Amino acid sequence: MEDKTLYTISIFTENHVGLLNQLSIIFTRRCLNIESCSASRCSLDGVHKITLTCYSDRRSLEKAIDQIEKRIDVIKAYLYTDDEVVYQEVALYKVSTTKLLEENNLEEIMRRHSARILDITANYTILEKTGHSDETEALFLELKRYDLSQFVRSGRVAITKSPVELVDAYLKEQEERRHRLTHDMI
Amino acid sequence: MSETITGSEAIVRGLIHEGVDRVFGYPGGAIIPLYDTLYDYTDQITHVLTRHEQGAIHAAQGYARASHRTGVVIVTSGPGATNIITGLSDAMIDSTPLVIIIGQVVSGLLGSDAFQETDVVGITQPISKWNLQIRRSEDIPAAIARAFYIANTGRPGPVVLDIAKDAQMGTLKWDRYHRCNFIRSYIPYPEVSDTELHIAASLINSSDRPMIISGQGVMIAGAEKELAMLAEKADIPVASTLMGLSTMPSDHPLYKGMVGMHGNIGPNYNTNRADLIIAVGMRFDDRVTGELSKYAPQAKILHIDIDKSEFDKNVKSYARVHGDAREVLHRLYGLVREAKHTDWLRSFDIINDVERRRVIDPELNGTDPDARCHMGEVARKVSIAAGIDPILVTDVGLNQMLSSRYFRYTAPRSIITTGGLGTMGFGLPAAIGAKMGAPNRTVCVFVGDGGIQMTMQELGTIMQYGVNVKIIVLNNDFLGNVRQWQLLFYDKRFSQTPMVNPDFVMIARAYGIEAEDVERRADLDGAIERMMATDGPYMLNVMVSDQDMVFPMTPGGCAVDHIMITPNEVYTPDMNEP
């Protein structure tokens, strides 16, 4: 393991039961720890996108990607470094309202972190911040002073900077292949 | 016009549409509806009842590999499912096309720890090419079609269908069967790139010491003829992996032997002398490469495979051609130039001659009539006595290594062995399936005294169906391969390898199978003759010396050209005769 880098893995799949398990066992078997995970629909109809992050070296993850793409229900999988994608995470923080109101610089903190308030009660306040993990982490450290009782951060979501939409192109090719196959049969 | 039929009826119709006329299985609670339907189709589908589910899946593997067809297994939920796991893993790693239909508890009970419920999809995901749980009858026809398409296209593999009992019993509208030929996320036969082909051809044309390593992919693609044509045109020596044995006949002048831990000295030694290794349909298993960092240091690796994930997985390739071996070899034939590599070819023969003198001749030419036979000697004699194009089936261990080394291969698809997983107990049931898949060929199964006892109950299957298999037990009252390692590397501490064995001949006879003991060399020829003359199953229990080992041997962790030819000697070129 030469260069332990945080990589982003984007996986486009059919939306079937058990798919996440098919993917996660590929990491388990190679002792690769998944740092974060998010799954949702994507811009393509019926295509599901799973975004994982993982600290490893490129060679190990390229092999994992090959194994992922080999799964029948996986459409495509890609490996990215941070400079190839635009990415975000969202974090939520629950802190004591009383403690928070004692703070003179509350406005300054909120501005500096571009955080916003989602909910306030007499007991607690819930803050939200979107950003990279070092940014959400920074706010976490700052809010520790105010009886922070809960903190949660989502998996990374990422969109490529590349001008080419590879999955669209692939699916178009496959549509043509399907067309040829049906045509050949007739 | 559509009609209403049950889910299990749809399963059976699907099987028939896929050309299935034989299945291997074992009934149980959650699969009774399907068995009830099969009862109406005995004229179209022969069901082979094994004595254990593991036997059913190994038999289906043997059947698939002997016949080129998809093997079908039917078992029940829970223990029925878990009993096929070993064979499933074996089929996955050895790329064997299977469709395994497993009963599951009724869908309403899923996840409730119901009687005989197990998480089949979860358990089988890492060891199946594809799997699916079916809870609704109407999903059955498409799932069957998809299963067969996936199992036996591209790089083949096992597919698991986990079918809830209520889906088997419920009804659906059936109009006609639609075979699957397209899945958008699956490209079984990639288009072969001209660029890759041209690079490959120029590598071959410019090499002085090229060597082909032929794997099972050649057999799966049916590319044996194309392999020989290419090798002959460019005058390239061919070695095979264990799984690739018989892709070239043993007596072909360009065939230089098997690579790997117990392969032949010529191809193993010359792997590290070659300037180009053309790897076709093989995956650089650690038993082939030895220590990776010392593998083929002078060679560019040209890797030809249908499975993209094999490229650079173990050995970094210099160039690759992604595609079906038959198409790639055929097109390369047109691009390579005629060449002569006389000295290079001769170097294999010179090295192999050392093996012949030091290892093979002593193994084959024992003279003491009262001594026990050598294992290689038995394998060679059986293969010669077995008629035209016999099939070798092996178990695991010394029986596997010595029979595969000394059997003579005359036709493609002549070896069925458990390569990747190394499953003891594979041989006997696999032989049953092999004979059913290739009824006109003599099937000889070599098995040790340890391995046969792992699936010995399948003698009952042989009895019930009168399966004409020739069973050769190489019996040394030891787990011989482990013993060899203990002798060589563990200070002769034979921990749990000696075995007290039953009278195998009496056991065979209890199943109505003719059998005899071969205690001494003088009795071997007559026994083989009687076995081959018998029109039916036959067992030879051949007593072999517990001192016998398999050589040559590249010990684990050593370079592929570090080859022991005896416990105390490593091959060096000064052993060559001029």
Account of the 3D structure:
The complex is a heterodimer of chains A (186) and B (578). With 186 residues, chain A is of the alpha+beta class. Chain A has 6 helices and 9 strands. Chain A has 2 domains: 80 residues, Alpha-Beta Plaits; 72 residues, Alpha-Beta Plaits (2-Layer Sandwich). In chain A, a hairpin with a 5-residue loop joins strand 2 and strand 3. Chain B has 578 residues and is of the alpha/beta class. Chain B has 3 domains: 172 residues, Rossmann fold; 156 residues, Rossmann fold (3-Layer(aba) Sandwich), CATH 3.40.50.1220; 172 residues, 3-Layer(aba) Sandwich (Rossmann fold). In chain B, the strands form 5 sheets. Chain B has a 6-stranded parallel sheet. A 6-stranded parallel sheet of chain B has the order 11-10-9-12-13-14, with helices on both faces. In chain B, strands 16-15-17-18-20-19 form a 6-stranded parallel sheet, with helices on both faces. Chain B is globular, with a radius of gyration of 24 Å. The termini of chain B are far apart. The relative contact order of chain B is 0.11. The mean pLDDT of chain B is 97. The chains are: A alpha+beta (186), B alpha/beta (578). At the A-B interface, helix 1, helix 2 and helix 6 of A face loops of B.
Helix percent band of chain A: 25-40%
Number of strands of chain B: 22
State the distance separating the first and last CA atoms of chain A: 53 Å
Determine Rg of chain A (CA atoms, Å). 21 Å
The figure for the number of domains of chain B is: 3
Low-confidence stretches of chain B: none
CATH topology of the largest domain in chain A: Alpha-Beta Plaits
Largest sheet of chain B: 6 strands, parallel
How much of the polypeptide of chain A forms β-strand, as a percent range?
35-45%
Full CATH superfamily name of the largest domain in chain A: ACT domain
What order do the strands of the largest sheet of chain B run in, or round the barrel if closed? 3-2-4-5-7-6
Distance between the termini of chain B: 79 Å
The biggest beta sheet of chain A reads: 5 strands, antiparallel
| CATH architecture classification of the largest domain in chain A | 2-Layer Sandwich
Structural class determined from secondary elements of chain B: alpha/beta
| Number of helices in the DSSP assignment of chain A | 6
Mean pLDDT of chain B: 97
